[in-house]
Design goal:
CATH topology of the largest domain: Rossmann fold
Strand content: 5-15%
Order of helices and strands: HEHEHEHEHEHEHEHEHHEHH
CATH class of the largest domain: Alpha Beta
Strand order of the largest sheet: 7-6-5-8-9
Bound molecules: phosphoric acid mono(formamide)ester, norvaline
Number of helices: 12
Distance between the termini: 17 Å
Largest sheet: 5 strands, parallel
Helix content: 40-55%
Number of domains: 2
Number of strands: 9
Shape: globular
Structural class: alpha/beta
CATH architecture of the largest domain: 3-Layer(aba) Sandwich
Length: 323
């Protein structure tokens, strides 16, 4: 028998049929509710309790970029929820031969119950969502990685026992999907966030303006600086990401120079709180954005974070797909 989520029964949130494209589309309460559902589903899975909320449903997954965690966690998540997932790489489908996004979205809407898409421009996923008659979930674009940040928030909650009132810092490439989704996600749940990035790699200005608005609503603080030592002062949560994201490989050498001084290492982390936790969405480049001793050391929770992709996404799938 499927257990009801009595803890949340009093709250009425209706995600059915909606898209999951960026965290700024959701209220603080909606994000906290999805995290609650993730906690419940994780407990059920750990206790071996079946939870086939999506029996008979199928998730289509389109990948224009590589993936280990996103692909496997969505696929396993659908299986654990009683459904199935289909993997489509753009190079093996007609999308790679130029079939339009609108025709693809309309056709796939006739077969599957939802689409998860990992692609390059954020506009492409918005176009998919516009033409699809089923929910579209963002599995990463150049601009946003919201399912990763849901897993990050779940990991912080597990390790710190709370979200609001904590301080997070993100050191590295500010104009990247992780920085943007962390800005929105952290501020929505009341976590102060400081981002330190070199000149030329600061966060997207539109996202920053929107983030300032979110900060006003939740009372959380936002700081954007070029100074990693300033950003990491008293941080509870230290985050970084690769300096060269997928699709930017031609800029690798230039970026290695630009990000000198922005490595997360033991010296820098002396300025964080003594019990800070370290997050990285992975894959990581040890010796570049983070030292091996840090990511493989006692402050690192990167494998809990990777596991939580599964649980956080199952909550999204359950809430957005359940009939
Ligand atoms: N963190 C993350 O999205 O990993 P993958 O690229 O392996 O999916
Ligand atoms: N910023 C990285 C995240 C990988 C999960 C990228 O886009 O490649």
């Amino acid at each position: 028998m499927i257990e009801t989520m009595q803890k949340n029964d009093s709250k009425q949130f209706n995600f059915k049929g909606k898209n999951f494209l960026q965290l700024s589309d959701f209220t603080t309460d909606e994000i906290l509710y999805l995290l609650d559902v993730a906690v419940e589903l994780k407990a059920m899975q750990k206790q071996g309790k079946p939870h086939p909320y999506l029996s008979g449903q199928v998730l289509g997954m389109i990948f224009d970029k590589s993936s280990t965690r996103t692909r496997v966690s969505f696929e396993v998540g659908m299986m654990q929820l009683g459904g199935q997932a289909i993997f489509l790489s753009s190079k093996d489908s007609q999308l790679g031969r130029g079939e339009s996004i609108s025709d693809t979205a309309k056709v796939l809407s006739r077969y599957v119950d939802a689409l998860m898409i990992r692609t390059f421009t954020h506009e492409s996923i918005e176009e998919f969502a516009h033409h699809a008659e089923i929910p579209v979930i963002n599995g990463l674009t150049d601009l946003q990685h919201p399912t990763q940040v849901m897993a990050d928030l779940l990991t912080i909650l597990e390790h710190k026992g709370k979200l609001a009132g904590l301080k997070m810092c993100y050191i590295g490439d500010g104009y990247n999907n992780m920085a943007h989704s962390l800005l929105e996600g952290a501020l929505k749940v009341g976590i102060d966030i400081s981002i330190a990035s070199p000149e030329g790699y600061m966060p997207n200005q539109t996202i920053v303006e929107n983030a300032k608005q979110i900060a006003k609503e939740t009372g959380a603080q936002i700081t954007i600086t070029h100074n990693p030592v300033e950003a990491i002062q008293n941080a509870d949560v230290v985050v970084t990401d690769v300096w060269t994201s997928m699709g930017q490989e031609a800029e690798t050498e230039k970026r290695l120079k630009a990000f000198e001084g922005f490595q997360v290492n033991g010296d820098l982390c002396k300025h964080a709180k003594s019990d800070f936790i370290f997050l990285h969405c992975l894959p990581a480049h040890r010796g570049e954005e983070v030292t091996a001793d840090l990511i493989d050391g006692p402050h690192s929770v990167v494998f809990d974070e990777a596991e939580n992709r599964l649980h956080a996404q199952k909550a999204i799938l359950k809430e957005f797909l359940q009939k």
